[in-house]
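In response to the reviewer comment on reproducibility (Comment 2.3), we provide here a single inverse folding case reported in full, input and output, so that an independent group could reproduce the run without further information from us. The structure tokens appear first.
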């Protein structure tokens, strides 16, 4: 076809030279360009060489007549859609019919009225263009639906009909052209358990759905080869008498998200190499057992050759060794426990290459020693890894609850101490905990500290430092986190030492109210100094966040300083949600209404699942630095981070990763789609002036990741 703005091109095919000349003259007057051909064959050749926007075909020509030419044209590339006007002296119905059968768009008698012919041709061109545009929009809509895995369907209740979009049909496993069907046929695509819920949309229970009368639920579609999970969102249209007459719904394939969630669940709780509970889960199990107050013991077994195998044969071999060792230890555990009825053992991977066993039931030193030895000895005979025989050799150590440790952390620490002692001895040995009469560490309440803290605010000893948050796509500051510092008589006390104290003594609220106000004032000062808008995040303790007065305090701070609400973020930890979920949600909603953002700090260290967070009005997750520090040392760490990032993206949550200390870590994160970063690699917490200098300074090339040209600003700053 011709270019968008060039005059349309007409091809006139006629064996009568006089008629051709007259046609050319008429069409030129209507602003068309014209190409001529004197018979059907030549016409097809011309079209092949240069597709026209419209074709005028004489019906009666020697050799190839107009009908045959038209039929052949329709099979040529680009020939199917071009409008064809068939011209014939014949005015009988038969030839009109033949013209349409041959694929002509329209029919005109010969000789024509030239002015009408010109208009007719222009109209045909316009109609063809509209048809083409329409087809394109439809194709685009279908493509968008496909990318989003989003289908639509509509249920017309009076007619008893379901209409489906193409993507909807595809998602439900119908034939591509099955775009209309009965409700029963439609429901049959879903798992039986979900059909009732779908059918109930026609007649919903009075209190069901949301306030706006919409419905949102997930269904299973048992298509082959893999069943899909789809999320259905439906809105009802009612008649004046309240009856539902139409259901408008969209349907989205959320299977991948579901899988990611399950995968995260698994990665978050289990060691990918052995399938045993990972560090976090193992600790939870130990915590549960110690809290139950019944007998419990933790036994650590460490294959001693693991480190040298990693060094000599690489990580894959070390993993294979670990896996084999795990199988052997599990067998030995099962055998040994047969002799101790009532004792139960759970495996875990507490970290550092060791295996942990949590024993519950009637446990004592004798059992622990016997079992420790059995496990350590089970690794005496060689393991075969990559065709080699490897003597893993193991040592073990244990601790009993409650005598060696009352809570999980204590017990794990003591067991580790025993293991370290055993590792200093010969392989195959088990170390019991050292139990000399130790004075219980009495918590000395630092009274002086508490008294001083009371005055800290008044004396102006509290300061905020600000740690930059970086947008790695641009290498620029995208915000800061305010971190509290206490200069107690000139000496800096880190927040770890006084925040808990402030909480216990009820001082946290005035202190943090001050932090909110001060952060807002600092925002305004930076802006006045020409640094532009630097969004600021403030940390809040759980108790403070739950305080009903918080939204009012935040609103006042914003109003006094003119900070846009979206530029203030409040960081809370997951513990807030555990403490009092309904109140936490109420607070989040009030803050959301103000336009203030809420972020979950230290994400991944607590208990909440992403699935659960999805339901809360949260803007951002701050992935804890623990996940970053494992990068590079454990292959599963990157997989876990990648899955977490994919998941947050799927849930539409923004994300920032903290504690980035090396360029390699930042690169890994960036490669996994994370661009918001915070950590010592970029900057430590700075005084306000330090942030100003950074924001106004040259763009840092080492903070920008990914390809793309160096931004122009950087050049002008550098110059
Ligand atoms: P957080 O909110 O997770 O803050 C990040 C902490 O990690 C900061 O420690 C920061 O200095 C440190 N950090 C940042 N990047 C890196 C890195 O690359 N590597 C390492 N190893 N550490 C990094 P800081 O300032 O000692 O604060 C500790 C915690 O104290 C904070 O953890 C936060 O929970 C709490 N905190 C600080 N200010 C406040 C406050 O105003 N209110 C409340 N409730 N808590 C606060
Ligand atoms: Mg924080
Ligand atoms: Mg944090």
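Designed residues, in position order:
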């Amino acid at each position: 076809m011709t270019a968008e703005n060039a005059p349309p091109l007409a091809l006139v095919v006629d064996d009568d030279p006089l008629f051709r000349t007259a046609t050319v003259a008429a069409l030129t007057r209507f602003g068309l360009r014209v190409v001529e051909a004197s018979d059907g064959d030549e016409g097809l050749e011309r079209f092949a060489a240069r597709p026209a926007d419209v074709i005028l075909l004489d019906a009666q020509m020697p050799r190839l007549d107009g009908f045959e030419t038209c039929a052949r044209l329709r099979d040529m590339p680009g020939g199917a859609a071009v409008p064809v006007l068939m011209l014939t002296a014949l005015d009988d119905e038969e030839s009109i019919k033949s013209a349409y059968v041959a694929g002509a768009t329209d029919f005109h008698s010969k000789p024509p009225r030239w002015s009408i012919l010109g208009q007719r041709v222009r109209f045909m061109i316009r109609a063809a263009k509209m048809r083409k545009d329409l087809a394109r929009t439809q194709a685009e809509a279908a493509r968008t639906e496909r990318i989003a895995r989003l289908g639509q369907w509509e249920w017309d209740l009076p007619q008893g009909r379901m209409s489906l979009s193409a993507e909807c049909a595809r998602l439900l496993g119908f034939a591509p052209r099955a775009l209309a069907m009965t409700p029963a046929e439609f429901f049959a695509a879903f798992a039986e358990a979900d059909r009732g819920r779908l059918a109930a949309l026609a007649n919903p229970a009075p209190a069901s759905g949301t306030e706006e009368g919409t419905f949102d639920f997930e269904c299973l579609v048992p298509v082959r080869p893999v069943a899909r999970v789809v999320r259905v969102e439906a809105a009802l249209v009612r008649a004046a008498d309240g009856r539902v007459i139409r259901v408008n719904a969209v349907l989205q394939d959320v299977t991948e998200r579901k899988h990611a969630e399950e995968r995260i669940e698994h990665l978050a709780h289990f060691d990918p190499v052995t399938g045993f509970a990972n560090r976090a889960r193992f600790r939870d199990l130990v915590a549960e057992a110690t809290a139950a107050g019944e007998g419990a013991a933790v036994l650590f077994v460490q294959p001693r050759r693991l480190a040298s195998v990693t060094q000599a044969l690489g990580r894959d071999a070390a993993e294979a060794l670990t896996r084999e060792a795990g199988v052997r230890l599990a067998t030995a555990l099962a055998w040994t426990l047969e002799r101790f009825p009532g004792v139960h053992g759970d495996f875990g991977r507490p970290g550092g290459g060791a295996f942990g066993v949590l024993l519950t039931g009637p446990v004592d030193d004798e059992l622990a020693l016997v079992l420790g030895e059995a496990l350590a000895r089970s690794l005496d005979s060689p393991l075969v890894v990559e065709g080699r025989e490897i003597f893993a050799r193991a040592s073990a150590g244990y601790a009993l609850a409650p005598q060696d440790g009352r809570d999980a952390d204590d017990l794990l620490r003591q067991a580790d101490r025993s293991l370290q002692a055993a590792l200093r001895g010969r392989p195959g040995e088990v170390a019991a905990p050292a139990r000399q009469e130790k004075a219980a560490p009495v918590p000395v309440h630092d009274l002086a500290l508490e008294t001083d803290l009371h005055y800290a605010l008044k004396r102006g000893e509290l300061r905020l430092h600000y740690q930059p948050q970086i947008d790695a796509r641009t290498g620029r500051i995208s915000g800061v986190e305010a971190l509290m510092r206490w200069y107690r008589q000139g000496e800096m006390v880190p927040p770890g030492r006084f925040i808990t104290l402030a909480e216990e003594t009820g001082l946290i609220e005035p202190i943090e109210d001050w932090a909110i106000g001060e952060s807002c004032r600092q925002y305004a000062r930076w802006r006045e100094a020409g640094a532009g808008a630097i969004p600021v995040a403030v940390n809040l303790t759980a108790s403070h966040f739950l305080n009903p007065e918080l939204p009012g305090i935040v609103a006042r701070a914003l109003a006094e300083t003119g900070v846009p609400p979206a530029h203030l973020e409040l960081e809370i930890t997951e513990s807030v949600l555990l403490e009092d979920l309904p109140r936490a949600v109420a607070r989040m909603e009030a803050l959301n209404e103000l336009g203030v953002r809420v972020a979950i700090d230290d994400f991944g260290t607590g208990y909440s699942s992403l699935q659960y967070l999805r339901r809360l009005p949260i803007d951002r997750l701050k992935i804890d630095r623990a996940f970053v520090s494992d990068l590079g040392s454990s292959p599963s760490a990157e997989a876990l981070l990648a899955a977490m990032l994919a998941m947050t993206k799927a849930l539409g949550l923004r994300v920032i990763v903290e504690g980035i200390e090396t360029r390699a870590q930042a690169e890994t994160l960036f490669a996994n789609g994370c661009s918001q970063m915070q950590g010592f690699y970029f900057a430590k917490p700075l005084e306000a002036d330090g942030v100003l200098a950074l924001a106004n300074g040259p763009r840092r090339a080492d903070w920008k990741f990914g390809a793309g040209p160096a931004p122009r600003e950087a050049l002008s700053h550098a110059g």
